[in-house]
Amino acid sequence: MYFLTGWPRRLLCPLRNAEEPFHIQPSSQRFYFALLSETQLSIWFSRPSVLIVSYIESAKAVAQFGFYQKAEWKPDDSMIAVATAKGYILLFSVLGSGDDKYLYEPVYPKGSPRVKVTPGYKEEQCAPALSLEIKKPVDLEAPITSLQSLQEELLVCTADGYLHVLHWDGLGGNGRKAICLTTIPFSLDLQSARGGPSLDLEGVHIRCMEYCETLDGFAAVLSDGRLGFITPLSSTITADVRMLQLQGVWAADVSDGTCVAVNNKYRVMAFGCASGSVLVYMIDTATGSMQLSHKLELTPKHYPDIYNKTGPVKLICWSPDYSVAMVTWECGGLSLWSVFGAQLICTLGEDFAYRSDGTKKDPLKISSMSWGAEGYHLWVLPTKRIKRKQQQQQQEEETVSPPQFSLQAGILQFHFIKSALTVNPCTSNQEQVLLHGEDRLYLTCGDPAQAHSSSETQQQQHARLHPHDGSPPHHHQHPHHHPNSPLSQGLSTLLGHKHWHVVQIHSTYLESNWPIRFAAIDTTGQCMAVAGRRGFAHYSLFTRKWKLFGNITQEQNMTVTGGLAWWNDFVVVACYNFIDQQEQLRLYQRSSNLDNAFASVTKLHSDTLLLNVFRDMVILFRADCSICLYSIERRSDGPKPTVSVEMLQEVSMSRYIPHPGLVVSVTLTSVRTETGITLKAPQQACMAESIMLNLAGQLIMLQRDRSGPQVREKETAANNKKLLPFCPPVVLAQCVENVWTTCRSDRKKRHLLEALWLSCGEAGMKVWMPLFPRDHRKPHSFLSRRIMLPFHINIYPLAVLFEDALVLGATNETVLYDGMQGSSEPLEALFPFCTVERTSQIYLHHILRQLLVRNLGEQALMLAQSCASLPYFPHVMELMVHVVLEEEATSREPIPDPLLPTVAKFITEFPLFLQTIVHCARKTEYALWNYLFAAVGNPKDLFEECLMAQDLDTAASYLIILQNMEVPAVSRQHATLLFNTALEQGKWDLCRHMIRFLKAIGSGEMETPPPTPTTQEPSSTSGFEFFRNRSISLSQSADSVTVGKFNLQKTFSMPTGPSSKGRDGECAENMYIDMMLWRHARHLLEQVRLRDLGCFSAQLGFELIGWLCRERNRVARVDDYVLALKRLHKDFLWPFPVIPVGNLSSPLKNGRCRPVLSTRLLKSQSADSLLNMDTAPPPVVPSNRTWMDGLSQRSKDMDAASSANSTQHSPQTYDAFLSLLTNKVEEYSIGSATDLTESSSVVDGDWTMVDENTSTLSLSQAELEHISMELANKGPHKSQVQLRYLLHVFMEAGCLEWCVVIGLILRDANVIKQVIGLLDSPEVPAETAQSIRSGLLAIDTWASTDCLGYKPFMSLIQPHLQQLMMAASMASEQVQPEAFQPSACQSSKLGAVEGGPGGVALARPEDGRCVAAPLGLLALPSLEPAGGFSRTAPTEDYRAPNETEERGEEEGTYDCTLS
């Protein structure tokens, strides 16, 4: 409702005076404030807040009359009455000094547009010049306790027990009447009055009294602390005071009253008590007795250290619109309450009461306070004692600096912004929160990032610099409001997404029409209208511009009386026209200029108090207690759209409404109670069916009377002007502050859209909800059509989002400021900086729970299913379980009918049942778990349900529950189940948590339960990024195994992995976990899921190489080579190779030319995605010998090539040339073109040499086709990196069969060659060699029939196959005694194995052909790329010329046919 903003402002009196002001009294319109000190009466103006005039009593008069004590204004502001200590009433006339005389006037620089346009036009920024003149005093001969102004009378209570009624004008003896308190009969209610005087009033007088206009009586606090209400028996008090017969009513059982304030709009009386609480009473209209409505008191829950130490209530102040009350206590502090008891602000807690270092502040003690105009300011006079102390300290500090006015009177002004609903409860937009301060509007129009105008940035800057202070412009000149101060900068970040859209009200309009009285926003949330004292203005967020009346006279000739509303793009205004002296209903179009020429004007017969819009109807509530309905129709026949307004119906309410001022809001709705609405006929729900009237907090409903003859639908078109009459009113609810309803309809969410929402102060909210029969069944006769459900919320509701099941509100937030910790704290340190933040709250769980309590589970289910798509629906379910669980499990008495089993059963209807229960349990203390699971089921069963539903994260949460509720063996058993499932599904984060969990169960280290898995570590189920940035190059060749082995070891031991402890000290738990990991690895390898195996190893730090070494001759064998190859293709998204049909005549038909092309291709590419996969991984550090040999080989090759350059290439030269290129690529290609181009200059020389010497190889169309084929035959770069890495791992572990399969998919002849070379080693079992032989034969057969793309590669490795066949026959003779170790000494051994005589290393072509015959292969002589895997001995890098020559001649005889 009302929210504190910014810091309070301190006003200093310009006159030097030793007296402190102690009483402040506002005039009726609150434009003037009378301040009293002991001998001085001052009058202040509200805007600007300046002192106008001050009257100082002479010493002689002070001696005669005594000090000033209280003051009261005459209702027309022309006189002030002051009560003095010795029982005198001093009367002052307040005299103006002509119309054009101002005390202060604004001065504008020359050329400023803000100059007076119209002569005689008054600007509000001027303060009028007034003077005070004292009249003859009246002596009442007893101390005065209370002053109360009536219209022409002044009611004075004195300490001798009398009420004096004085006339304002003639204060002679004839104008006086005294009533003795003892003559007024008091009883508990008016019916039981006996008529005799009450005897117990001897010596009692009235301590405090206030007149309530709408109750026509006085609320009084007597000197003995009793509370009463005094009312005239026959006539009203104001008729003739001399003939007054008074009657009093007691409030039972109260004897500690201190003060009173009455609320005219809601007909309640707030009595302050010595106990610190405020009792709010209403008068029972039937019996006339005083009934306690509610209490305003601090609760021990929110204020544990202060709730009973506040002291007596000192003052209560209702705001001008009567929607909130400000309360202060003897011990200090301020607290703000809504009319029915919702607490909005209290300065006795949090940042108001404590400094940032935790020390307590002294609360501000207040001697008097008063609301300013429209409630935008609270004027507060602090108590003397604190101020004196501060001033002494100030004086001590100011000895050095020139003395300032340290003893000046100080007034504090607190700034407020308030909801537009307080004075303009118009429902044209119920889903936007609109607040207004005295010079700006705050609205919730979504995220400012979505805005579409450049001026939005200025808007945000404004909000950033002056985030929430609803203060006038000159307030920003305050030293602590400097735009660059760190506080202001930080606030926008504090607010985050709770950003308000702040719109500054146009200063020209504000100057002449302050204060703003009404504000309204349209349904789209894009247009706002405000109305001040005269005229109105409107603003559009689209254009970011205000529209004001072009003609200032038109603006000043109207005043808005009944409020503002928007209808489509028209502003609907109920106003009074001063020229015609008539009430009017006007509609102005938004896009036209603001001018009466474009307005639609309808004359009204009576003053309008309230206005509202429903669809195409306007409803007015008038001062004669009647309600009028008008229809609005848009007409687009002219150049500009106009509207026609027609009166539909008039309903007199004077029988039911005692005073027109009691009506808080009037609303047209489509809500009905009768049976006419069923699921079949929702269209009727869109009509204006009923009127809701908030009468002083009572919600009254008038429905249309359908009891008469009904008109059929088709006949209504002709006579639809005749509307149905209304039934007599029905009271729906009490203590209602606001009402929300919508005219939208949605079949899916009818429960929410056809409901009525009420805000009821401390009682929270209520919803009046329709109940529908399910599935078009006939409704039960005993089931009512609607039900009223109450529920509590933690915020003050300002708007309702109907479909989203959200309540929007606002709340005060504070920012501490510790700039000056000196002994004299300025106000800025005494008070925190206040901001207003948007808040929202879900209410759905409250409603579902209330329906379940009332056995309306079917309705609850329909409602919940309609909202199941909301993003926070799971949270709603959790909240419902949590709230019921907390209440029932912590109850001291046994609950006869517990709700938790019902709630649990209800939640099982939704798929998120398992998550809801476990999330709720984990947010609840352990002591309540048994109660929870007794209702919802055994956690073991729920865990198993999660596993069956494959919801592993939820299962992990249940595991924590089990670990706390069951013995370790049970939780280990379930953890093992979950761990295995997580491994199977590749949920690596969860696996890591499970490893930690299992270890902790065994070691007893389980201090913190593992959280439900989140992405804490860079998990990647798609690749081995775990190794991407480690010390080993992923495309590294086998030569670097001596260097890379240690690095790999280091990489594998992740801190969470099973290998983090030494093997010797490994406990049984680690062994248990390792067994599970080994089992899973075995499972993956058996299923040929190499990619998953790699991910598993990388993510969990599994020592793959060590495990493979152990499993080399067991599970790490390949049973079916063809199946393994196919699986790898599928797993790594690697395409099967294809060969183009038209390649038979290509210059590339001889397979030996491929390396040259690949080399040239790599040279020309820069992206590493075009890796040359025909080349093997390079050495990281090649040995010197290989390097030198390579160089010598190169020089020979260059000579040979250049000598034969001019002649026809002989086979011998050609072969040498190819050998050189292949060698170079395989030694230096690290797998990306960047690496190639950054190699040494010798290599660059090679490249140029190739380009110069291969004029015959200029790329033709056929070659380009071949290159594109090569690219098409390669898989993704990531897959290649992964395959190379796996190849490295398998080679390390000596799993040669897998090396062959990976070599085949990569089509890397060197791998095959190297593996076949290794097979000669005696450490390799004969079965392995046999398996590789038969596997390659199977692959060849498969390639011939199913995948011809592999044929060229099979032809390429034909020599190695022949060597393998030879080796098989000689295997028994080749046994050597050394042990096989894939470690540092490996390369020398392998070199020894391969460096045999030429006949062994290179089988003779004749033998090769013989052996190859069964393969069905063309016996192609070996094109042997030298260098290969650098484990091969350097002797292989070059050959004897005769060998080469012999092979070269034979090569010429074979062609490789590419089909």
What would you note in describing this structure?
With 1459 residues, the chain is an alpha+beta fold. 30% of the residues lie in helices and 24% in strands. Strands 1, 30, 31, 32, 33, 34 and 35 form a seven-stranded antiparallel β-sheet that branches. Strand 45 and strand 46 form a beta hairpin. The radius of gyration is 47 Å and the shape is elongated.
Helices, strands, pairings?
Blueprint: E1 2-12, E2 23-26, E3 32-36, E4 40-45, E5 50-56, H1 59-65, E6 68-73, E7 79-84, E8 88-96, E9 102-104, E10 127-128, E11 130-134, E12 138-139, E13 144-149, E14 153-158, E15 162-167, E16 177-180, E17 186-187, E18 206-212, E19 217-222, E20 227-232, E21 246-250, E22 257-263, E23 268-273, E24 278-283, E25 290-296, E26 313-318, E27 324-329, E28 334-338, E29 343-346, H2 350-353, E30 366-371, E31 377-382, H3 384-397, E32 410-419, E33 434-436, E34 440-443, H4 455-465, H5 486-495, E35 501-504, H6 507-513, E36 518-521, E37 527-531, E38 537-540, E39 545-547, H7 552-556, E40 558-567, E41 570-577, E42 582-589, E43 599-603, E44 608-614, E45 617-622, E46 626-635, E47 642-652, E48 663-669, E49 690-695, E50 698-703, E51 730-733, E52 738-740, H8 750-753, E53 756-759, E54 765-770, E55 786-791, E56 796-801, E57 806-815, H9 827-830, E58 833-842, H10 844-853, H11 857-867, H12 873-889, H13 900-907, H14 913-922, H15 929-936, H16 939-948, H17 952-965, H18 968-985, H19 988-1003, H20 1041-1052, H21 1068-1086, H22 1090-1100, ...
Parallel strand pairs: 17-21
Antiparallel strand pairs: 1-32, 2-3, 3-4, 4-5, 6-7, 7-8, 8-11, 8-12, 9-10, 13-14, 14-15, 15-16, 18-19, 19-20, 20-21, 22-23, 23-24, 24-25, 26-27, 27-28, 28-29, 30-31, 31-32, 32-33, 33-34, 34-35, 36-37, 37-38, 38-39, 40-41, 41-42, 42-43, 44-45, 45-46, 46-47, 48-49, 49-50, 50-51, 52-53, 53-54, ...
Helix pairs in contact: 10-11, 10-12, 12-13, 12-14, 14-17, 16-17, 17-18, 18-19, 19-21, 23-31, 24-32, 26-27, 27-40, 31-32, 32-33, 33-36, 34-36, 36-39
